[in-house]
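Quick one, tokens below:
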């Protein structure tokens, strides 16, 4: 899609617009985190809907075949002591690489180079990124990170190529991909993607879901799920976003149940879960997703800070500060003792973009702060 409706400052308003998809989709659906103002959200959703319908028109009767994600047959065994499981350092980061079709100068190329060079990006075992939507910028980011993290999954929802299995509601005709990828220091034994069936608002037009990767850490298997849950979008009706997230977490839990992963093996779930730690929904999320809370949470109090993060403050000045990004373990499985999530209040060298004759300078690399998790 080459065009989109802009406001006075086009790169600073709206939601991510689709990358080009080569095949039709029989039923339109879902894209990214929270959308800004209600009016523009509706306008951009209309653009995405039109793109999806146009993509479906040439072969509306040909529904794409979905590959059913395989399930493991290993019997469940008692959880291993914490000291018997690998102690990994895991980073989750919403990188805010929206498509330049709608955001032509949000510094995507600059940030795709700067993120892998940032201090918080160094020395991790696993990195889970979200909102890696822009094809060119996200490919550059993954390429720039390859020396540190030589093993990775593709970006989920972009195609079925490079995956061992694809499940859920994937369609190649959906306007936007899912924006999630897993990077690792350790070899990845298996890569699966699962696209959520449930979505509302702008998310309806993306292949958002979760990545499932099995790592070989010195001969021991560690399971990593990277995800980006439903955003709280004005295009959703009252309460619909939370209800949709609940169904997404339940779908993820059912997927992992079917794997019959031994309790002695870690199952890490990381990403922008779009659930604030300070709300009642957080406990519901843990229950719906079958997750255990972290032993501690330190660092900056908000991973999405509309007061102090220069990009978030520009994009969402009236929105609340929230703590939305998490690295957790599946309940009943091994995990390192003292598992702690730390919100890193990242600050970058100033970078400047121009829009309609005006320059804007930022001192952050995304509208979210990174979260790094590890045990003691």
């Amino acid at each position: 899609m080459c065009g989109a409706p802009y406001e006075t400052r086009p790169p600073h308003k709206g939601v991510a617009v689709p990358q080009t998809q080569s095949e039709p989709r029989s039923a339109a659906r879902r894209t990214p985190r929270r959308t800004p103002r209600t009016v523009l959200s509706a306008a951009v959703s209309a653009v995405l809907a039109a793109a999806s319908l146009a993509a479906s028109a040439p072969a509306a009767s040909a529904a794409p075949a979905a590959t059913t994600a395989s399930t493991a047959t290993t019997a469940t065994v008692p959880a291993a002591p914490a000291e018997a499981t690998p102690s990994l350092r895991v980073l989750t980061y919403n990188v805010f690489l929206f498509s330049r079709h709608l955001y032509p100068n949000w510094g995507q190329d600059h940030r795709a180079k700067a993120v892998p060079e940032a201090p918080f990006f160094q020395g991790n075992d696993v990195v889970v990124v979200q909102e890696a939507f822009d094809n060119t910028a996200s490919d550059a980011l993954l390429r720039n990170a390859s020396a540190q993290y030589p093993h990775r999954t593709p970006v989920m929802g972009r195609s079925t190529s490079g995956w061992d299995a694809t499940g859920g509601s994937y369609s190649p005709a959906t306007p936007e991909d899912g924006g999630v990828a897993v990077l690792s220091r350790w070899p990845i034994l298996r890569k699966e993607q699962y696209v959520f069936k449930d979505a509302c608002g702008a998310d309806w037009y993306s292949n958002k879901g979760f990545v499932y990767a099995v790592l070989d850490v010195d001969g021991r298997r560690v399971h990593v799920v990277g995800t980006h849950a439903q955003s709280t979008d004005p295009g959703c009706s009252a309460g619909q976003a939370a209800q949709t997230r609940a169904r997404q977490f339940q779908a993820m839990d059912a997927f992992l149940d079917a794997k019959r992963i031994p309790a002695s093996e870690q199952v890490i779930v990381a990403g922008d879960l779009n659930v604030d730690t300070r709300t009642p929904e957080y406990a519901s999320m843990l229950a719906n997703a079958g997750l255990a809370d972290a032993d501690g949470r330190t660092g900056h109090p908000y991973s999405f800070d509309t007061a102090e993060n220069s990009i978030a403050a520009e994009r969402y000045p009236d929105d609340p500060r929230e703590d939305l990004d998490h690295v957790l373990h599946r309940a009943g499985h091994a995990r390192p003792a003292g598992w702690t999530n730390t919100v890193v209040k990242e600050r970058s060298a100033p970078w400047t973009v121009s829009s309609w004759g005006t320059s804007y300078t930022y001192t952050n690399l995304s509208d979210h702060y990174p979260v790094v998790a590890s045990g003691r």
